[in-house]
Amino acid sequence: MTDIAIIGGGPAGLAAALYAVRGGASVRLLEELFAGGQIVKTHCIENYPGISTGPDGYALAAMFEEHARQFGAEPEYSGVASLSLTDEKKEITLISGETFEAKAVILCMGASPRALGISGEREFTSKGISYCATCDGAFYRGRTATVIGGGDTAISDALYLSKLCKQVYVVHRRDELRASAVLANAAKKTENITFVWNSTPEAFLGEDKLRAIQLKNTKTGELSELETDGAFVAVGIVPRTELVRDQVALAPDGSILTNERMETNIKGVFAAGDIRNTPLRQVVTACADGAVAATYAIEAIRI
Questions:
Q1: Which candidate among 30, 156, 162, 269 keeps its CA 20 to 30 Å from the CA of 72?
Q2: Position 49 confidence tier, pLDDT thresholds 50, 70, 90
Q3: For residues 49 and 18, what is the distance between their CA atoms, to the nearest angstrom?
Q4: pLDDT, position 264
Q5: Which listed residue (3, 56, 87, 132) is catalytic?
Q6: Which residues pair with 112 in a beta bridge?
Q7: Nearest CA to 301 among 90, 96, 18, 129?
Q8: Backbone phi, psi, residue 178, to 5°
């Protein structure tokens, strides 16, 4: 029996672990791949208070992990096979086969990139289609790349790719961006970034690899082809709730419903970060969620 099991080692999970161990709780922090979650795919983070140097996500994640380790929160790199969560009992089964119980559980599994769900997407994934510019951008050095989306992630990706690629297109369904003004203005001033407004991708085209994207003009309905060597999809995220979908209450978008204490509908079960119903999915808010969740998880197990 451990006091608090934290599922997921992104910013929310690492912050929760830090606050939990500093609060005197025994903690098992479980991460299936690597600490940091989605931020390790971000090439520059400029909006985390107190760190103005704009580190890449991997470096920031390493700082978070080291801070947690200093207080005794040691990440366990082990995937979770299943969770059985009730008011009375919380049971965690690992892929290794180990099963253990916790007095409280904090769900921090994060989210995954949202797919477009159009023709050719599955066939050309990793053959010209990517969901991570910092992971795969180097493959398109000196070539043409296209970013699909208009939010912060999409425009950050476009700016990153502009330093590597000969030409970067940004395809957006409207004629104005959702990204922050700082990012939007920077992209509009970058010579090799071209915006393709009022357009949505209808299909990915090619034979052995991606050759072009079929686009539909949202105002006229006209179809066209945009030739590109690579396409980077950045149209949002999907909360990773597969392990708990039939146990905790979910919002219509699939995120976990919580109150201001990060409590779910199950006593002793909390959620933090991108997986929960939050109006803002940023590193700073994920850390705050983790701190709140750990604080009230400690209170719950000591009542």
A1: 269
A2: confident
A3: 18
A4: 98
A5: 132
A6: 238
A7: 90
A8: -90, -10
44 flagged as catalytic? no
Per the document, the length of the chain is 303
Q: What are phi and psi of 137, to 5 degrees?
A: -60, -35
Kindly give, in sequence order, each residue whose CB lies less than 8 Å from that of residue 44, ignoring residues fewer than 6 positions away: 54, 55, 56, 156, 160
Strands 27-31 and 75-77: parallel
- Mark whether 136 is an active-site residue: yes
This prediction's pTM: 0.83
User: Is the four-CA dihedral 250, 251, 254, 256 of positive or negative sign?
Assistant: negative
Structure tokens at 186: 């920077």
Report phi then psi at 123, rounded to 5. -65, -35
Q: Are 95 and 78 in contact (CB under 8 A)?
A: yes
Catalytic residue among 44, 56, 108, 136: 136
Query: Residues 89, 93, 94, 99: is their CA dihedral positive or negative?
Result: positive
Assess contact for 187 and 157: CB atoms under 8 A: no
Residue from 44, 87, 135, 253 carrying the catalytic annotation = 135
Residue 191 to residues 166, 178, 212, 252, 280: CA-CA distances in angstroms? 10, 20, 22, 40, 31
Over residues 137-163, the mean pLDDT reads 95
252-278 pLDDT, tens digit each: 999 999 999 999 999 999 999 999 999
Backbone angles phi, psi at 207, to 5 degrees: -120, -85
Active-site residue flag, 229: no
